[in-house]
Amino acid sequence: MPQLNPNPWFFIMLTTWLTYSAIIQPKLLTFVSANQPSNKMPTPPTTTPWTWPWT
């Protein structure tokens, strides 16, 4: 069964990952995120207690 022979498939997989790591990944990492991180501290929301009509 030729699909069990790893010789050609391992080379194809290795070439694909090297291409991804060397060419595609640096191009993707140059994109700037739309939301820049901020230094503001998050404020907790203020809530009011619920008044139950039967108490």
Walk me through the structure:
Keywords: ATP synthesis, CF(0), Hydrogen ion transport, Ion transport, Membrane, Mitochondrion, Transmembrane, Transmembrane helix, Transport. This protein is an all-alpha fold and 55 residues long. It has 1 helix and no strands. The protein is elongated, with a radius of gyration of 27 Å. The model has no long low-confidence stretch (mean pLDDT 81).
Reading the helices and strands in chain order gives H
Question: Given the helix and strand composition, which structural class is it?
Answer: mainly alpha
Tell me the helix content: 40-55%
Estimate the mean pLDDT confidence. Answer: 81
Profile the largest sheet: none
The shape, in one word, is elongated
Our estimate of the beta-strand percent is under 5%
Query: Kindly, what is the distance between the CA atoms of the first and last residues, rounded to a whole number of angstroms?
Result: 77 Å
DSSP helix count? 1
Counted beta strands: 0
